[in-house]
Amino acid sequence: MKVTSDMTIGELIRMDQNIIPILMRAGMHCIGCPSAQGESLAEAAMVHGIDGELLIAQINDFLENK
Going by C-beta distance under 8 Å and a sequence separation of 6 or more, which residues neighbour residue 15? Predict the structure, then answer.
């Protein structure tokens, strides 16, 4: 499965909990907060000042190579 910008943080975590360290390294340290569960990856990247497309590429690379 490929990660897309409209997927929520909660969906990503349910997909594979090993994505959490990738999000943490990118600066998303509030993985467990309630808003993170319903926030899209694009929204979370924008709020945290992160390049969302780069983060998506990193996550998809991880998923393809695990």
Answer: 1, 3, 63
What is the pTM assigned to this prediction? 0.89
Cα distances from 39 to residues 11, 64, 65, 66, in angstroms, run: 10, 24, 26, 25
Could you count the other beta carbons within 10 Å of the beta carbon of residue 2?
9
For the chain, give me the number of helices (H) and strands (E)?
5, 0
Spatial CA neighbour of 48 closest among 60, 63, 57, 35: 35
How do residues 3-61 score in pLDDT, each as one tens digit? 999 999 999 999 999 999 999 999 988 787 887 788 899 999 999 999 999 999 999 99
Residues in the chain: 66
